[in-house]
Write a structure and sequence with these properties.
There is one protein chain. 34% of the residues lie in helices and 15% in strands. The chain is an alpha/beta fold. The strands form two sheets. Strands 1-6-5-2-7-8-9 form a seven-stranded mixed β-sheet, with helices on both faces. Strands 3-4 form a two-stranded antiparallel ribbon. Helix 1 (10-22) crosses helix 3 and helix 3 packs antiparallel against helix 9 (279-288). The longest helix has 18 residues, at 216-233. It is globular. The two termini are 21 Å apart.
Length: 303
């Protein structure tokens, strides 16, 4: 339905946003492609991209497809239960596109939450349209929690997924710096609060050069420092490093693609922004007049 008529999803998303502000629920799956998750199945790893999706870009798409293809390449064949039967592929990983908001009862800027969720569903279809990923189930989720460890716990406690399902969060190097910065964890200002998160789950870190985060060598020095004891000095555990996978992002000479860059180009009337989005996302952004001075607010996420 989302692919052919994404507007039909707006009432569903607006209702979900309203429920998030009026209930004690901290996480919910609002839409699934093709079918909802099962709390009884823990064989699939769960990959999670937590972002503002404002709007989703080709960079988001590449982060998602790269992680899924890597997972599928490592996934062993299942053992056949009957003699003379060949092994079959293990179930594909599951993917969660997660939007976090604390103020869903207020119309956000510059694009309403409900519209962002439509864009997330369009991104999901593009992920599944990528070679080798047509069988990957994708969920669109909402959370009111602001921090990774609380989001992770809310997902576990929701009963939507099996509690022992391993989560792998896809984050950029800049997000890693914030994740491991004790100033975000008062009053102790210690990384010990992350033990329940990084002690059980993993992060896939995409190196991101430029933008004030330093070059490749500086980022590698930071990661090396974590291995040599800096993590423990901050209240963390060396074992967490076993659950951290570092992968290459864009090259230092490549043009950075970002949501803020898309918004700036739209505001400037620069049509090149479309090359930074998938066709479906670009069509919705353009048809709804998002990120211009005349943003449509009637379908905003205030229910």
């Amino acid at each position: 339905m989302a692919a052919s008529n994404p507007r039909a999803l707006l009432p569903l998303f607006n209702t979900a946003l309203k429920n998030l502000t009026t209930s004690s629920t901290f996480f919910s799956v609002v839409h699934s492609i093709p079918s909802p998750p099962s709390a009884t199945s823990s064989t699939n790893p769960l990959y999670i991209l937590d972002s503002s999706f404002n709007p989703p870009t080709t960079a988001h798409l590449n982060i998602c497809t790269s992680a899924l293809l890597s997972s599928l390449s490592k996934n062993p064949l299942s053992t056949p239960k009957l003699p003379n039967r060949s092994p079959t592929p293990a179930p594909p990983p599951r993917f969660l596109l997660l939007l976090a908001t604390r103020n869903a009862d207020k119309a956000p800027q510059p694009a309403p939450y409900a519209h962002r969720m439509v864009l997330m569903s369009l991104l999901a279809y593009s992920i599944r349209a990528s070679p080798g990923l047509s069988d990957v189930p994708i969920d669109i989720g909402l959370t009111s929690e602001p921090y990774f460890h609380d989001k992770s716990a809310a997902i576990e406690d929701s009963g939507i997924y099996a509690r022992d399902m391993r989560q792998t969060w896809l984050i950029g190097y800049d997000t890693l710096l914030r994740l491991l910065d004790p100033k975000y964890y008062p009053p102790e200002h210690s990384l010990g609060v992350l033990d329940g998160f990084l002690g059980r789950h993993g992060v896939r870190i995409i190196l991101r050069t430029g933008g004030g985060w330093g070059g490749r060598q500086e980022q590698e020095r930071y990661l090396k420092g974590l291995e040599e004891g800096d993590l423990e000095k901050l209240g963390g555990r060396r074992e967490w490093l076993e659950r951290m996978e570092v992968v290459e992002g864009r090259g230092e000479s490549e043009e950075p693609v970002s949501s803020s860059g898309v918004r700036e180009r739209i505001s400037d009337g620069d049509g090149r922004w479309k090359s930074w989005c998938t066709d479906r996302v670009a069509e919705w952004v353009e048809s709804e007049g998002l990120y211009t001075n005349d943003v449509k607010q009637e379908d905003s996420g205030n229910g």
